[in-house]
Amino acid sequence: ICGTLHSVDQYLNIKLTDISVTDPDKYPHM
């Protein structure tokens, strides 16, 4: 998880890392 993410995005990305990236455009770092 990048440290430059917003608080809301950080929580979303934590959940996405456990599942999968369904929107690579919004999460290019994934």
UniProtKB/TrEMBL annotation:
Name of the protein: Sm domain-containing protein
Annotated organism of origin: Bracon brevicornis
Localization: Nucleus
GO cellular component, one term: catalytic step 2 spliceosome
Statement: the UniProt record of this protein carries the keyword RNA-binding: yes
Domain of life: Eukaryota
GO MF assignments: RNA binding
InterPro entries assigned: LSM_dom_sf, Sm_dom_euk/arc, U6_snRNA_Lsm2
Family membership: Belongs to the snRNP Sm proteins family.
Swiss-Prot/TrEMBL GO biological process terms: mRNA splicing, via spliceosome
Entry keyword set: mRNA processing, mRNA splicing, Nucleus, Ribonucleoprotein, RNA-binding, Spliceosome
Keyword RNA-binding: yes
Domain Sm: 1-26
